[in-house]
Specification:
heterodimer; A: alpha/beta; Rossmann fold; Alpha-Beta Plaits; 2 domains; six-stranded mixed beta sheet; four-stranded antiparallel beta sheet; B: 253 residues; mainly alpha; 10 helices; binds adenosine-5'-diphosphate; binds magnesium ion
């Protein structure tokens, strides 16, 4: 049947709507112990993005990933991956996913080559030694391909797990705390792999508590605490919205207390009295710096030096989680 | 059907067997030979033929059954318990494989191994005693059915077990005693009538009896009943496995 061409609503012209690669709605998980690890999670992951899930230990990051991957059964809610329901259409959904778990769950007596080949077969793909070789080389595992996993270091085992996850050419890659306790070399290798994957259109969801990594790598950041997503934001937006700046003044002469002329500014006096710190919001229309400097001159306070610092994602994160408690 | 996944699991499990080939084959062969020396040679010389069959030859089917039962349960339970123990099960659970495929892979490999062992023991036995196989097709049929059934049972035990002790528990407390009391080394006709009735509640009596019939055409219970009981047992295991996967029992949290 031919459908008449309908005029497009104007909004859809400038924002082409791409369906999310992962769509989570009303997802909760209560473990058999009665502990509720996830509370009504709603979250969409866009195709091709790097999404960082940040949260303190026990927040529910691993549980969320495990539900999506089919290791933990959800208590309520639905999850689709590439449009496929993870429960009713699990084959199609799981075929798209590669998972690098948080723990180093590896075989011991298998060779690297065998275990990675096994992973590809398990996902129903025909053998492709060329692809496996490419993956192993990209993770600097090629010269270890015949080594039994037992004899590898922790960092090397982590690489093997990544290789296993990439063996079946996933469209979505989960990295659960991939750099926890990992050497600098591997981190570098790993981020190179992640960048290359992303360039080829793979969606990447990672959890980490190395916040610099989320800051450096992610397109969007979600913060989870006590089983609830408390914030999802583009990284730049997040930095802008919540980014606080501090202006620090090194004084010539120590102060005993903040003078009355300066009372209307949010100032903190460091112990010793030689340093004044002014905290302001970068997103505000006015930062109040001019007024502060005027008042300083009026109070006849002279300073030797001045510096500003931008709060990192870590500060933002700690602030958010603390507020939530 | 994700046939490649089944093959991957099967090959992986068979590779595990191959790595431990020495223990896998040598220890059952040695212990079977010991049975022959003790029961066949030492005691057998004092025992008359049973229903026209030399005693040493009489115990061969029972011994093979004993090995098949213990090896199938041990192998399959370890095969699925170990990934649970090490955590590598995560990969199986997150792969696009159905539960049926997982079972075929693991149980198929465990059953294959015990069938091979059974045949090796049969060949070993041939060195000690004169063997006769009246119904080779039935013989193979019982061998395969029993290996599959008890591999399924082992799989169930492996999923249920929470520790290595539990893994040993059922084989030690249930399977071994039932096998010894199941007419492995004697015909249940030699038992007093009361114990004969009790013995009929022992499923292993039917397996051993049917298997022995396929060798010498002599049986404690009719072959039809033996075969039927074997299938009942198989069906019981299949239903249990199906229920486990339906409910995610002890596999998914
Ligand atoms: N199998 C389980 N049974 C009961 N509680 C669990 C289980 N697994 C995890 N939890 C609890 O759920 C919470 C979230 O755990 P997890 O998802 O691992 O957090 P994260 O990965 O963010 O550190 C924790 O409090 C943890 O103790
Ligand atoms: Mg975790």
């Amino acid at each position: 049947m031919l459908r008449p061409l309908a005029p497009c609503p104007p909004s859809s012209v400038d924002t082409p709507v791409m369906p999310p690669i992962i769509s989570i709605s009303n997802l909760s998980k209560t473990y058999a112990s009665g502990f509720q690890a996830l509370k009504r999670i709603d979250l969409d992951i866009d195709k091709g993005e790097i999404f960082a899930l940040l949260g303190p230990n026990g927040a529910g990051k691993t549980t969320l990933i495990s539900v999506i991957c089919g290791i933990v059964t959800p208590s309520t809610g639905t999850v689709t991956v590439g449009g496929h329901n993870i429960l009713t259409d699990y084959r199609a959904a799981r075929s798209l996913i590669g998972l690098v778990p948080q723990e180093l769950h590896t075989d011991a007596f298998e060779s690297v080559w065998a275990t990675v080949t096994f992973s590809r077969g398990l996902f129903g793909l025909p053998a492709d030694p060329g692809h496996i070789e490419k993956v192993l080389r990209s993770l600097s595992l090629w010269d270890k391909k015949d080594t039994k996993i037992l004899f590898l270091s922790g960092g090397m085992k982590r690489r093997v797990l990544i290789a296993k996850a990439l063996a079946h050419e996933p469209k979505v890659l989960f990295l659960d705390e991939p750099t926890a306790g990992v050497d600098v070399e591997l981190r570098k290798d790993m981020w190179n792999v992640v960048r290359a994957l992303r360039a080829s259109g793979v969606t990447i969801i990672l959890t980490t508590h190395y916040i610099e990594e989320a800051e450096e790598m992610a397109d969007r950041i979600g913060v989870i605490n006590k089983g609830e997503i408390i914030l999802v934001e583009r990284k730049a937006e997040l930095m802008r919205k919540l980014g606080k700046k501090e202006l620090t003044l090194q004084l010539h002469n120590a102060l005993d207390a903040i003078p009355a002329e300066l009372a209307r500014h949010k100032l903190a006096l460091a112990p010793g009295g030689k340093e004044l710190t002014y905290t302001y919001n970068t997103q505000g229309e006015r930062t109040g710096i001019t007024a502060l400097l005027d008042d300083l001159a009026r109070a006849n306070i002279r300073f030797r030096d001045i510096q500003t610092t931008q709060s990192s994602l870590e500060d933002i994160f700690v602030g958010l989680v603390r507020k939530d408690q | 059907m994700n046939v490649r996944a089944i093959r991957s699991i099967y090959v992986f499990e068979m590779a595990r067997t191959a790595r431990t080939l020495f223990q896998s084959i040598v220890s059952p062969v040695v212990s079977t030979s010991l049975y022959f020396i003790v029961f066949g040679a030492a005691i057998g010389t004092r025992i008359q033929e049973i229903e026209g069959v030399n005693y040493g030859a009489f115990i061969v089917p029972g011994l093979i059954m004993l090995m098949i039962l213990t090896q199938s349960t041990a192998n399959a339970s370890f095969g699925i318990y170990f990934p649970k123990f090490t955590g590598t099960i995560f990969e199986i659970l997150s792969a696009p494989v159905s539960f049926v495929e997982i079972v075929i892979g693991y149980v198929g490999a465990a059953a294959t191994k015990s069938i091979i062992l059974g045949l090796i023991i049969l060949a070993t036995a041939g060195l000690f005693v004169p063997l006769r196989i009246d119904h080779p097709v039935f013989m193979l049929g019982f061998l395969v059915l029993t290996a599959v059934t008890f591999s399924l049972l082992g799989f169930i035990i492996g999923i249920w077990a929470d520790g290595f002790e539990q893994l040993q528990l059922i084989p030690l407390l249930v399977i071994t005693p039932l096998t010894f009391l199941g007419g492995t080394f004697y015909s249940i006709d030699v038992l007093p009538p009361f114990w004969q009735t009790i013995a009929l509640f022992n499923p292993i009596v039917y397996l051993v009896s049917g298997f022995r019939w396929s060798f010498y055409s002599i049986a404690d219970v009719s072959v039809g009943v033996s075969l039927a009981m074997t299938f009942v047992f198989l069906a019981l295991c299949i239903v249990t496995v199906w229920w486990i996967f339906k409910t995610g029992y002890r596999l998914k949290r």
